[in-house]
Amino acid sequence: MTRRLLVWRRLGLRTRLTLLYGGLFFVAGSVLLWFTHLLTARALNQRFVVAVDKVSHGGRPAPAVSGAALPADSLPGGALGADVIARRVRTDVEQGAADVLNDVLRSSLIVMILVGVVAVVLGYLVADRALRPLDRVTETAQRLSESTLHERIALRGPQDEIKRLADTFDAMLDRLHRVFDAQRRFIANASHELRTPLAVNRTVLEVSLEEPAASEDLKALARALLGATARYERLIDGLLMLAQSEQEITTRRPVDLRQVVRTAMEQIGPQPRRGKVTVHEDLRPAVAHGDPLFLERCLVNLLENAVKYNVRDGEVWVRLREDDAGACLTVENTGPPVPPYEVGDLFEPFRRHGGDRIRSARGAGLGLSIVRAIAVAHGGTADARARPEGGLTVTVRLPR
């Protein structure tokens, strides 16, 4: 019984409703067929068998004939012949009634099976149409992320249970959208407000370094503070970019990704020479619709990560192609081995390889987070996998 329940629960709601409709039809049809058979048998017995008896014997019951044949002189006036004929007529009528009942039953069963098959098909279509609004709710929920909370179901129709569910879901999305908008505005405002004191600190430290009377200890301290200030500025810029990239993209136009990749490579051009990292290109024509500045930031972050988290005399492979689904950019780099179970965490803010949160000199840990946020905001995806030889392979897919 438990196994049957598990099998039943594994079926989809549409299949379960179809089976319920079909089962109810066959149960109701079987009951109707049974009652029809009983009523037909009763009507045939009353209308034909009893009527034949009355006509044959003038209202008298037929004599009981137990033997195969009776002597001719056992009844007066040739009554035996008439009774035998009446008996045969009655038998023929009963046999005919039984044949009619069997034919009716057989035909009814065939018709019920055929109509049952049609009823199952119609039940599936009705269930599919009834569950279509639920499918719409499910598809909308699957598409949602922090950058697509502006989407709504906006279901039209009568105020039934499904319409109330869709309206409740839309109201929940409104509340979530307001909360995330407030969070993004707070991050953006805080980033802007923190930039001013950091800029002032950097100016004071640079002036102190240029002061002739400053001691070497003071200059060393100023250089250390300048490094810390630069790291904080990178962190604030990353937070601001992350907050902006998670918003809805308002500027969408065709962008030549091959040109964007080359522009991004020019920005990180000196780094491969300093780190002795060789960059290999395989760029084919590809076009995506979106904001060119955000896409450029996405590619710059990918290339910077590939160069920064590499090994000495390492390599980076940049591949760009276009298929039926859209543009596909792959950045693969050599580097230290990354456990496969840690790859997914690298897309979280402030997460680095090995859970490092201390070595902020190498970055704020926002690079891949910004990459995924920009890709999702453009309706695409960003995934990564660990290379067996060490390093990562990051793939960004953008729709046309």
What does this structure look like?
The chain is of the alpha+beta class. It contains 10 helices and 7 strands. The strands form 2 sheets. It has a 5-stranded mixed beta sheet with strand order 2-4-5-7-6. A hairpin with a 2-residue loop joins strand 4 (315-323) and strand 5 (326-333). Helix 2 (13-57) packs antiparallel against helix 3 (79-143). The longest helix is centred in the first third of the chain and has 65 residues, at 79-143. Residues 59-77 and 357-361 have low confidence and may be disordered.
Quick take:
This protein has 400 residues and is of the alpha+beta class.
Approximate strand percentage: 5-15%
H-E string? HHHHHEHHEEHEEHHEE
Q: Rough shape? A: elongated
How does the major sheet shape up? 5 strands, mixed
How large is the radius of gyration? 42 Å
Total count of helical runs of at least 4 residues = 10
Secondary structure category:
alpha+beta
Task: Give the low-confidence spans.
Answer: 59-77, 357-361
Determine the N-to-C terminus distance.
51 Å
Helix content: 55-70%
Number of strands: 7
